[in-house]
Amino acid sequence: MPKAGKRTKSSGLMNSPFGRVSVVLGALALVCLGCGHPASVKECEEIADRVTELELKSSPVGLEPETAKEQLERTRSWVKESQLKSCVGRRITDAAMQCVRAAKQAQDITDRCFR
């Protein structure tokens, strides 16, 4: 058992779907300002869903279909309430969306699709 206050590999916001979605949508804000098109609500929701899906696949929680479905719905609600406004309208390229769709891990989206 880890010591009090010590962060384990699986602890912290970055290792939760909420944290990863927040980082990805924040990174979207930094994507090339002079290229692409304004991100739509549908695209922002797709990005959030894909990140959450990949995070759940790599987590023991994602192995149970009902739990994974509940987590996906909670994340969708959270994104709509807190993150969607900062994503919609930001510049995004078709290549970035293709990268999101092809990513094998959530980390790929942060590291490759929006850099």
Strand and helix map with partners:
Elements: H1 17-28, E1 37-38, H2 41-57, H3 65-87, E2 91-92, H4 94-102, H5 106-113
Antiparallel strand pairs: 1-2
Helix pairs in contact: 1-2, 1-3, 1-5, 2-3, 4-5
Verbal overview:
- The protein has 115 residues and is mainly alpha-helical.
- Helices cover 60% and strands 3% of the residues.
- It has helices at 17-28, 41-57, 65-87, 94-102, 106-113; strands at 37-38, 91-92.
- A two-stranded antiparallel sheet has the order 1-2.
- The protein is globular and about 40 Å long.
- Residues 1-15 have low confidence and may be disordered.
Low-confidence stretches: 1-15
Question: What would you call the structural class?
Answer: mainly alpha
Strand content: under 5%
Query: Could you say which overall geometry the principal axes of the C-alpha atoms support?
Result: globular
Instruction: Give the number of DSSP strands.
Output: 2
C-alpha end-to-end distance: 37 Å
Radius of gyration, Cα only, in angstroms? 15 Å
State the share of residues found in helices, binned by percent.
55-70%
